[in-house]
Amino acid sequence: MGKSRSITGEKAMIAALRRRLPTADSFKFGIRVGIGDDGAILDPPRGHSIVVTTDFSLETIHFRREWHSPESVGHRCLARGLSDLAAMGANPLAAFLSLALPAELIKGNPSWRDRFLDGFLVLAKRFRIPLAGGDTAQSPSLAANKRTNGLALADIIAIGSVPPGRALLRSGAKPGDRIYVTGFLGGAAAELRQLEANLRKFRNCKSGPTENPNPHPHLFPEPRINVGEWLSKNRKATAAIDLTDGLSTDLNHICEESQLAATIDAAAIPVHPLAKKTDSSGPLQLALHGGEDYELLFTVSPNLRIPRIISGVPIAPIGTMRRHTARLPRILLIDEKSQKSALKPGGWEHYK
Amino acid sequence: MGKSRSITGEKAMIAALRRRLPTADSFKFGIRVGIGDDGAILDPPRGHSIVVTTDFSLETIHFRREWHSPESVGHRCLARGLSDLAAMGANPLAAFLSLALPAELIKGNPSWRDRFLDGFLVLAKRFRIPLAGGDTAQSPSLAANKRTNGLALADIIAIGSVPPGRALLRSGAKPGDRIYVTGFLGGAAAELRQLEANLRKFRNCKSGPTENPNPHPHLFPEPRINVGEWLSKNRKATAAIDLTDGLSTDLNHICEESQLAATIDAAAIPVHPLAKKTDSSGPLQLALHGGEDYELLFTVSPNLRIPRIISGVPIAPIGTMRRHTARLPRILLIDEKSQKSALKPGGWEHYK
């Protein structure tokens, strides 16, 4: 009861984390007390605001153990949090991980947990973000569930900092602003379909060096931290969001929060090569509704110039923000034949 | 897949939270962007350190829906986070809640979720801590589990601030320091036994006005925020921890982190009246090992005086820190007949 601090395996986990984590002073910001006290102490840059974001990674909802390698689950768990920081233009300070696992996943060498942490910590190291604390617990056991004694449940908390007034919000877009996206869209949905069709091929998939286009946009999405920081630092973007639910849904969020509408040019959307190979549904559909690409969508005043590449990531202008009127749909899509249609928030289906 | 932002009921939840939450400027610190953007922006007091803590509240591990009223689950969820801040001497800034529920718990008026949030927000309001964000998701459905389609899963993130160098750590105790505890011990374990024996009696239990001793130490534990802040502000405590796992286990944490040992006077331990009524096991056993009292244990230099009451909470001296030697056990318990015994970390049993 309330004993998550002393369950079997927790001391071992704390000890394992302490061993594996770099010392505090190898990071940008001092974490004076991390794993092992009642809380962690962070010293954000003086006068900066703090950005906080939390995201669940729940087995069967956000991943499947049969589908995703443990390294992919760990990477995706942290990437969800970092991508939110990127969308706010924040500089990552620290990550916290609440992790509940069934006993079977902490057995073996390496255990599922070890491989999960590998995936998590490889990404953390790349962005020099310390895992500063969290909670561990035994996953609720479900005797009636024959497949497993419990599910893997994670919650990632990502904390960043941003100079006062520099955070990128969803609500700041202005009529006439140009709409941009980073990288390529539809790749995550396309790779998920490949995964479904051939689980064995991806079973031991680990992340490789960062490339554009990302060869594993679903299994190892790349949070666009550097682009977000660049946009905030150079005061370029009026609004931003990360593409988790799909372009059609997330652009709708920007429209709603900014009380505007948008027109999108289908031919300008950078479709991921994996989506172009997909024939079961149109590549454009995957790029518009696929979701989980973790690319950034942002809006910029038409008076400002945006480079074609920021921090190695291609940037594409795809449309324009405009006032919302009864005459036109919230999001107007203009296709390659100049035909106009309404783009409804489509998003992506849950695992059934 | 990764669609926790757009699942059924989430928009309703965000809307419900926005309606129910006080506006930002009614709180001590401005939360400029909370629920509804990619992250929340907090402005901590200038130059202060940030304290971050996360705690799971998982059905069947930390609570049972048949045992705990939804208000109790919500209260206990937040209390776990606030108690960690109290143990660090931090001033609460904001709370974040990741909450995954099965569909059945968001139906009805009031739904289980509404009552959970009531319990959560009543406590939040008392400490003027805003619920600034979080995540929501559908709970993983477990078709094989007949009792339910899924379990209620929560993760609380509590963020506080503390002036530089003033945080209360577990590692700062010195030989000769006096050991103190707040309030009364063993009450939570005693009430849990009452609960087991008579579920119906507690089904609709809501929290009442704050009292000492707390009439519902298990269902509505009181985080000792004010005492923690007082200790930090007045530079009184050398180390502190909250009693989640039981005095015997948590004092052992202080001993280990401070590389010391301790001697405890059994007669000085403030046993909760509910524990005194328990006859199935000795009241002292509940006070020593019961856990979940969420009282503070802290150490103070023998040269400093500690009032008997801080912020309305009784304070009791119960022993002394000393150097660890091979001659004596890590924690020595002296009973009422001056008999000495080793106090081993006992803790409390999980739900089976």
Please describe what this structure looks like.
- The structure is a homodimer of 352-residue chains.
- Chain A has 352 residues and is an alpha+beta fold.
- Chain A folds into two domains: 10-162, 2-Layer Sandwich (60s Ribosomal Protein L30, Chain: A), CATH 3.30.1330; 178-342, Alpha-Beta Complex (Phosphoribosyl-aminoimidazole Synthetase, Chain A, domain 2), CATH 3.90.650.
- In chain A, 26% of the residues lie in helices and 24% in strands.
- Chain A has nine helices and 14 strands.
- In chain A, the strands form three sheets. In chain A, strands 7, 8, 9, 10, 11, 12, 13 and 14 form an eight-stranded mixed beta sheet that branches. In chain A, strands 3-6-4-5 form a four-stranded mixed beta sheet. Chain A has a two-stranded antiparallel sheet with strand order 1-2.
- In chain A, β11 (309-310) and β12 form a beta hairpin.
- In chain A, α2 (70-88) runs parallel beside α3 and α2 packs parallel to α6 (225-233).
- The radius of gyration of chain A is 21 Å and the shape is globular.
- Chains A and B meet through β2, β3, α2, β4 and β5 of A and β2, β3, α2, β4 and β5 of B.
